[in-house]
Predict the structure.
Amino acid sequence: MIPIILTIITINIYCLWKYRQKINIYKKYKLPLYKVSFAHSYSKFQIPVIKMQIKDTMAYFILDTGSNSNIINSSYEETIRLFTKSDFTQSTEIFGLAGSKKVHKVKGSLKYGKITFKDLEFNIVDINEPLKILNTDFKGKIIGILGAEFMHQYNIHLDFETLCIWIKV
């Protein structure tokens, strides 16, 4: 058990170091970046949360590099309807610490300021239990998780030193 934990810690440290190198390269060559702060949520919960727009509705999402896919909470039916239904009759299997589960998918876009994140796929999963603590103290409701798939697709880097994400535009 201890070797597994040490391996995970080592991988996380390496990933943070690689992210920091990329951010320094962006700054050095003055590549266009967009900065989004998650300082408010991080100072309170130690979890990066950002506010995104789905059509005309504002919604909060956790940024989670440990989640391979993006997730929308199944209890927010009105929000799910805002997305274009894609493969809704199809199900896919997701895997996690609790085992595997078949889920439905939706596809849609999110917006932050002038930046639009198109063609995002979300698994529809009941994540009420893990969000209970956050949603009792957080202004607004957290309706989903933006995982590694989102960060990789849009070249997004978490910067815990400045408590923001950098988006290469």
In short: The radius of gyration is 17 Å. DSSP finds five helices and ten strands in the chain. The first strand starts at residue 33 and ends at 37.
